[in-house]
Amino acid sequence: MREMNVILRKATKNSLVILHELGRGTSHKYDLAIALSVSESLIDIGCRVWRASCPP
């Protein structure tokens, strides 16, 4: 999560953020909450996001 903190603080509207396995190692409920929260923050910033995840 330290890396995500840096990404959220330094991302701009010109950034391309590539996320993989965000929230891995947490329960399914927390994984979805983390992913949604981070996604909403990145959308508010206006940057481009590519999110990949492996199915459970």
Automatic annotation (TrEMBL):
Q: Which GO terms describe its molecular function?
A: ATP binding; ATP-dependent DNA damage sensor activity; mismatched DNA binding
Keywords of the record: ATP-binding, DNA-binding, Nucleotide-binding
Pfam family of the protein (one): MutS_V
One cellular component term from this protein's GO annotations in UniProt: nucleus
All copies of domain DNA mismatch repair proteins mutS family, residue ranges: 1-48
Record GO biological process: mismatch repair
The source's domain of life comes to Eukaryota
By its UniProt entry, which InterPro entries does this protein fall under? DNA_mismatch_repair_MutS_C, MutS, P-loop_NTPase
Stretch forming the signal peptide: none
Write down what this protein is called: DNA mismatch repair proteins mutS family domain-containing protein
What are the leading ranks of the lineage?
Eukaryota, Fungi, Dikarya, Ascomycota, Pezizomycotina
